[in-house]
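# step 3/5: fold
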Amino acid sequence: MKQTLTHLLSIGIFMLYTLSSCTPTTIQMNFGEDEQLSFIRTGKEWGMKINTGNQSTLHQETPLHIEIRIEEDSTCLLRGGYREVQKSPKGIICKGEIKYQSAVFTFIDCYCTDKGYITVDRMVKVNGTLPQGFNSQFGLSTSKSALSEHLKYFAPGNIYGSSENLPDNAFGKDLSLKHLLIREDRLPAPLFGIWFSDGSSVTLLTINPDGGTSRQDSQTTSPTLFTDRKVKVGSLGIITEDNQHWLGYIFPLSEGDVTYSDRTYSTGWIKREKAWSKRYHPIENGFEQKYSIALRWDKQNDFATFYKKSWRWAWEVFSPVIKKHNIEEIRKSQINVLSQNVVHKSNYYGITNAIHLAAKEQPDYQQTIMGFTGKALETAYYLLRSAEETDNPDATTHRRQALGLFNTFTRLKIAPPEAEGFELTTWKPANALGGDRVYLRSYTDGLKATLRAYQFEKSKGREHPEWLTWSKDFADWLITFQYDNGGFPRTFEPRSGKVINPAPQSSYLAIPLLVQLAEITQNEKYLQAAIKAGEYCWSIQKDGEFTGGTIDNPNAVDKEAGALSLEAYLMLYRMTRDQKWLDRAEAAAAYTETWIYIWDIPMPEDISQKELNWKKGVSTVGLQLISTGHSLADYYCCFDTDEFAALSLLTDDPHYQYVSQILLHNTCNMISLPGNEIQNLPGYGYQEEHWCLAPIRGVSNMSLWLPWVATSHLNGIYGLKDLKTEYNNHNNK
């Protein structure tokens, strides 16, 4: 009997050992060429690891993270591993739970790799009710060094590699901070990428983001922590610790170590504050969180190619919807707005520099200014174009206004520049941002419009030699200031021409003007100056960072630097047919489109339309962030509609045509038209200058209309017309 019991016990022990040894300790799934997703069991819990061959390995021993807001600023972070991991037809299903007091947080994560990258669909369900709040987090740690010299970051519209050319108040200015987490509605695509110096990279993207928010969150401008079930905005970024990165997503958002604060949109600026903004969901029985993220690996020799491919991936995933508009109606509406704001007094003509939309009146600073936001000479050019439209009953008025504007501005002394425009009441010379300086941007914008008008009129048999002389005089004067490296100064003192700001980063501004003069006069010196400037600009842009486009922001990374560089490089290519300029135009385009919102961010449901400048229900796809250092967005890049269309023709890449259509159509979403009336706008054809999609969501700065809004639309519309003519003529030849 004793022997039998001993024998049976031995069999039982053997069977137990056999069963336990058969329980898998690793479950794997392959994706891509050399990539492998592995789940590894240690004890009763599972962690995970992603092996990308000769690239970086990411790992997470505890994939389940919950942060509990205990009281005020007091929080605690709870971690755990999966309890169940099993393969299914959909991928790998992982389950686990975290307990806090009487509440249980149940996680179900589904991993899928059938698209060449990893997607994670997560559901977190609360069992039990407590007075505290919570967020959940998903992230992976890199196996590579987090030393700044070993890597660069990409957060579209915010960080492009380094902190060098970011303003002091921008995210990413101080990369020594432990946390760099950004709420996703500040990002044109909810994406964050890391590129290592060996070329390997990893990019995190939120899939199907909700973006919903509440009045409390969307109108709060100071760093705060509170619980709000309506907030469906997450945050992306990195946490650096022990010389490693945690790359991940937090839902709802945690923004820190720095965040933007203050209601400073009334002045156009915001502060970066070393503080946290955090949102939590209620710990309430039955409450659920659902979100999806994707991870993509790549290997590229340079940072610029890395972020181009990361952005293209995001674009393909989101497939932004084109909202079609009647473009001829848009054209007429913008011409109408410009024309009705032309001011005529005695023998002077100008266009109102700005209109306060809420008050439906001009602000105190009544000026007419060339270039940048004033666009007086651009207005003149498009009024000339409109006067030639066969169905225009106002053709005579438009032509009179256009000629009046050119005749007024050509009175300004230009070598050196006397001013950027005039006061509308006294007609004394005036400047856009005060009387102490004139900007390269203002003059190059205005004079390239003047030369376009000169060429257009010449094609109709009408000569204006004084327009050409005026433009040449400025260019000849400017060339004397060209540095040996090819650059030009940023600002000058009015009348004396003394250099005030020698910064050359925005020298691309002079290139279109110089190329136009080379084409018109056949004088080689203009082309050589343009090429020299182009070579300098590329020498500082080749790593994918473009600087100094706007004049009312610091000389920092911004959208218009890319847009204007794109125009410059395309003009150099058309003049020289040198492939390198087309390649550089593509690089500028790749950068510029990363500022375009490709996801729709809804307005808060619990706020009235009267409190918003943005119309509820209107898609935000097509808006673009303006610059680093704040989260304001506008429609400026409709200016580049024709440039992207041209790139599509020149490179045979349909993606650029897709971007062109977004810029042509979606940028018209907030123009007030019959059937799409926008409250607080004066009437037909008007559009706000800008808005914000992060706090304060749906609110604009000073509620202004400026001439650049209309001329940017018209630049794209007429540019497409000219491109079609040019293309047809080329094919006929």
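# step 4/5: annotate
The domain at 31-318 is CATH 2.70.98 (Beta-galactosidase; Chain A, domain 5).
# step 5/5: archive (pending)
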